[in-house]
Design a protein that fits this description.
Layout (H helix, E strand, L loop, with lengths): L12 H6 L9 E2 L2 E2 L5 E2 H18 L2 H17 L9 E2 L12 H15 L6 H14 L9 H11 L5 H21 L10 E2 L5 H13 L2 H18 L14 E2 L11 H18 L2 H15 L9 E2 L4 E2 L3 E2 L2 E2 L5 H22 L1
Antiparallel strand pairs: 1-2, 3-4, 5-6, 7-8, 9-10
Helix pairs in contact: 2-3, 2-4, 2-12, 3-5, 4-5, 4-6, 6-7, 6-8, 7-8, 8-9, 8-10, 10-11, 10-12, 11-12
Length: 347
């Protein structure tokens, strides 16, 4: 695989194009933001992490302004009982009273990322801690494995005894679910491989780093190896398609391939490398980012060089020419993490 070329400064035109006074819009029609679909808390939580990563890298006040905007969206999304609504119409009307558990987990991840950041302003941390304190009573009762995983990924960033105990118990719960579903060659947490898959082993890697429980790392390594066997079966990264997923005993759906899968695999592999020192994980992280750059099943680059946007994945017939929030955020987060690796190697 050839080396991926990185610009000195990532282009952020499409980020500001998709972001208005409310937050980041969910979808586009080609490159045009589409108000019909409004906003989601899912996207704005991930956008908060992205904006902080941009501010940490470049120190530009325009990115800090985005941090406040996305934080305000999350504050507004929290309902009276401490959970989070997800779907907001373009005219600022909430369309649900309570979002999914996965939405809850993504909010905890984003809030904890901001709270643990040395570049996060103190007043912002205080506001986010207020949100976290209202949400925390619900974390222990989560049922969704991905919600547990996102919550673990967030809580392990905090140097807090209560957060440590809770992340440990959630990790134990994930391990129990894994051992229930693990069967012969099937080494996974459910009887189907669906979306945002790598966060499950990723969360256990981070739980191991925080608590030192060997069982967490053993299951993380085994399940990540299983996922790797599926997604690298062609010699390059090819995520499980969203049109059918992978049922136990079946074959993985070929398409559509989603950008979030490549991004979260990059994040997973880089932390796996940091924890284990296994350089194969580092190489796999580079290959997952290369998916954005054209090392994929269609040989197509998904990045619009003029605006920094990312196309909405790969379909059976080629690239999806829409440029929505999830794909954009996924590319930017992946770019910032992997380019840091190349920067260190060049030193």
């Amino acid at each position: 695989m050839g080396r991926v070329a990185f610009n000195t400064v990532l282009k952020d035109t499409h980020i500001f194009r998709l972001t208005d006074d409310t937050g980041m819009l969910q979808h586009t029609r080609f490159s045009v933001p589409d108000p019909v679909y409004g906003y989601t808390t899912d996207d704005n939580a991930r956008a908060l992490i992205m904006a902080l990563m941009l501010y940490e890298r470049y120190g530009n006040s325009k990115h800090l302004n985005l941090v406040y905007k996305y934080s305000s969206f999350i504050l507004n999304a929290q309902n009276n009982n401490g959970k989070f609504r997800n779907f907001l119409s373009y005219n600022r009307k909430w369309l649900d009273e309570e979002g999914s558990e996965d939405c809850f987990g993504r909010c905890i991840w984003a809030i904890c990322y901001a709270l643990s950041g040395e570049h996060t302003p103190q007043g912002l941390k205080q506001g986010l801690m207020h949100i976290l304190n209202k949400a925390m009573p619900h974390a222990a009762s989560l049922k969704s494995p991905r919600a547990k995983a996102y919550t673990i990924i967030g809580l392990t960033r905090l140097e807090d005894e209560h957060a440590g105990r809770l992340s440990y118990e959630l990790a134990r719960s994930l391990c129990s679910q894994y051992e229930t579903c693990r069967d012969g060659e099937w080494k996974w947490f459910e009887d189907v491989v669906t979306y945002c898959n790598s966060i499950l082993p990723w969360s256990l890697i981070l739980a191991y780093r925080a608590a030192g429980e060997q069982r967490f790392l053993d299951i993380a390594v085994e399940s990540l190896g299983f996922l790797e066997g599926i997604t690298f079966r062609h010699g390059y990264f090819k995520p499980v398609g969203c049109n059918g997923w992978l049922l136990k005993g079946g074959e993985p759906a070929e398409y559509d391939e989603q950008a979030v899968e490549a991004c979260e695999m990059v994040l997973t592999y880089l932390d796996a490398y940091e924890v284990t020192g296994n350089r194969e994980y580092l190489q796999k992280a580079k290959m997952c980012h290369a998916w954005f750059e054209g090392v994929n099943s269609k040989g197509i680059c998904l990045i619009d060089r003029e605006s920094g946007a990312c196309f909405d994945g790969l379909t059976e017939h080629g690239v999806n020419l829409n440029m929505g929030a999830e794909s954009l955020i996924s590319y930017v987060m992946s770019y910032l993490r992997i380019s840091g690796v190349y920067d260190r190697e060049a030193e």
